[in-house]
Amino acid sequence: GSAAAVHGVDIQPDAIALAQAGADAFVGTPCPTFAVGDWRDPRSIGPAGGFRRVVCNPPYFPLHSGPQSTDPAAATARHEQADTLDSVCAAAAWLLTSGGRFFLCHRPERLTDVLAALTAHHLEPKRIQAVQKRGDTAPWLFLLEAKKDARSGVQWLPPLVLYTDEGEPTPALRDI
After folding, report:
1. At residue 111, what are phi and psi to the nearest 5 degrees?
2. Are 76 and 27 contacting, i.e. CB atoms less than 8 angstroms apart?
3. How many angstroms separate the Cα of 60 from the Cα of each of 6, 12, 31, 65, 74?
4. For the CA atoms of 163, 174, 33, 86, what is the dihedral angle to 10 degrees?
5. What is the pLDDT of residues 22-42, one digit of tens each?
6. How far is 61 from 39, CA to CA, in rounded Å?
7. Which residues lie across from 148 on neighbouring strands?
8. Is-contact 127 157, C-beta < 8 A?
9. Separation of alpha carbons 149 and 98, rounded Å
10. Per-residue CA distances from 62 to 80, 82, 102, 112, 154 (Å)
11. DSSP state string for 108-159
């Protein structure tokens, strides 16, 4: 089949400029496009049901939790604004066609919040993978795939371990 178009969206214009600069060096087709958009207004991103896949790396930390960054761009990237997680899931549900897939990464301590937000918007978790720095450490992230309008049932994948005990990249990380 033909390659799918890739469209990147971020609320911060500087992040879009950085992504566009990287895309300008991209050799291949299709060339990714980028635009400023806000998940709180999914119509600013695209049409209802207009996407087969949505990928998101949302802010991980609830508003006013933990150390706050003095850099406004970093604060926006790291800390949720009001209803961010729910808004991200609502936007994904709006953008996806029925059967479309939503991919995101998040922090393990937010797993129950993520699952609740997904299912509230008819996004059924299908695969989850823990990401560990080393084989003997607790996960510091998880990767999740959800499917719009799907039946329940989730598969846990083996953890993605990034570094060996000696600090070298694992074959899995090198493959990435």
Report:
1. -55, -50
2. no
3. 24, 16, 29, 10, 12
4. -30
5. 888 777 777 788 888 888 899
6. 17
7. 123
8. yes
9. 6
10. 5, 9, 21, 13, 25
11. GGGHHHHHHHHHHTTEEEEEEEEEESSTTS--SEEEEEEEETPPS--EEPPP
Residues in the chain: 176
Tens-digit pLDDT profile for residues 121-153: 999 999 999 999 999 999 999 999 999 999 999
- The amino acid that residue 48 corresponds to is A
Tokens 């989730």 correspond to 154
Q: What is the CA radius of gyration of the chain?
A: 17
CA 90 from centre of chain: 14
List Cα–Cα distances, 79 to 36, 49, 70, 172, in angstroms. Answer: 18, 28, 12, 29
